[in-house]
Amino acid sequence: MLSLNEALDRAQSLVAAARRAGADAADAVYGCDASSGVTVRLGQLEDVENSESEHIGLRVFVGHRSASVSSSDLAPRTLDTLVERVIAMAREAPEDAYAGLAPEDRLMRKKLPSLDIEDPEIPEPAALRERALAVEDAARAVLGVTNSEGGGAGFGRAQVALVTSHGFAGAYAGTSHSLWASVLAGEGAGMQRDHASHTARKLRDLEAADAIGTRAGSRAVGRLNPKRVASGTMPVIFDPRVGNSLIGHLIGAISGPAVTRKASFLLDRRGEPVLPATLNLIDNPHLQRGLRSRPFDGEGLPTAMKRIVDGGILTDWLLDSASARQLGLAPTGHATRGGGAPGVGLSNVHLEGGTASAHELMADVSRGLYVTELIGHGVNPVTGDYSRGASGFLIENGSVGHAVAEVTIAGNLRDMFARLVAANDLSFRYAINVPTLRIDGMTIAGE
pLDDT per residue over 265-320, tens digit each? Predict the structure, then answer.
């Protein structure tokens, strides 16, 4: 793994070589991921992993023509070949009036903000094994748990360096510690599986192994003896661990590339209500120790906290430079980057504004569904039609009842977002964080 300074030097050299070879503009991005992990099952060591990968990507522009290449071989001779190849590719590529680097006057020029996303403590394999055993032991200790798919602990470190030919150079690194368990409850055909996990930037923020394991075991036991429910229309309440997928659909619908392709069910809703007026959707790339915190975006633009939805109103699209040019707007600092051309995405997202407790949210539900797992990908991003398999628990007279499986929930995301009600139990555990959510009038297909 290169150091951050070495990665910047390598990227700068590649960009300079591309310019010498005839590129009008270029950028290079370096990425490296190193990880280690230990998996146990039934109290025995099952797997020990240690991996490291790095790559560098080069994008060049010859007029309005562009091309991208990447390589995991960072040897100078290979990179020379990379430059020759990508210049030749760009000269044969079709013209794109919207292609180009980010606007130079918008590049990040200030010192990178401190995000506290790097942990200097690298765990030894023995420590990972101890944590993995502890989390699985806690899960297996729950009464009713009969088997295990395993428990695991891991550590990862990622580095990013980006250099552009028009004046940006930046790099940062981040770490992650993770812990998980997956167990089964019951016997034979009636067995049920569930899991629990947690990931944090720093070890001191990682949830205790016994808490994660106990939650995994309790979830599996709680799913025993599921029943079908009669088809109909009823309120659906989403557990926070699955409710965040709804916000994921909203994010996808407001991304610049989706809008330019006219492949979004929110195509005409910029500046219009998309959520109830009490709710705000916030993107915070500078969240301290956030799982997706980043000081700059994939094109070298500064990142900043932004209210994507403010008082229910969709404030803007999420734009990289290409989609911004196509729409006649300014890029928003939401470009993402792999080895090729930029994409679009958010960082640390949360939905706020709920005032009722989760208990109050279901208190008036005479018959409804509390969803803890979603299955399948039945979402049409163009129309917003939504249909997914689900499991969870029946709600009767304001209380959670028996387990439910093999049902389908359906609706349209536009209507679902308009009826969204949020609880006040927001916590920050994922990249997208939501409280318990309620949507009335959803169609349930059961018996």
Answer: 999 999 999 999 999 999 999 999 999 999 999 999 999 999 999 999 999 999 99
Query: pTM of the full predicted structure?
Result: 0.94
Please, what is the Cα angle at 224 between 222 and 229, to 5 degrees? Answer: 100
- What homologous superfamily does CATH list for 4-221? PmbA/TldD superfamily (3.30.2290.10)
> Is there a contact between 435 and 225 (Cβ–Cβ < 8 Å)?
no
**Domain spans of the chain, in order of start:** 4-221, 226-447
Strands 437-445 and 399-412: antiparallel
What is the residue-wise DSSP string for 364-424? T-SEEEEEEEEES--B-TTT-EEEEEEEEEEEETTEEEEEEEEEEEEEEHHHHHHT-EEBS
CB 433 within 8 A of CB 349: yes
Handedness of CA 294, 300, 302, 303 (dihedral sign): negative
Collapsing DSSP states into helix, strand and coil, what is residue 85?
Answer: helix
Q: What is the pLDDT of residues 24-35, one digit of tens each?
A: 999 999 999 999
The stretch 149-156 carries a mean pLDDT of 98
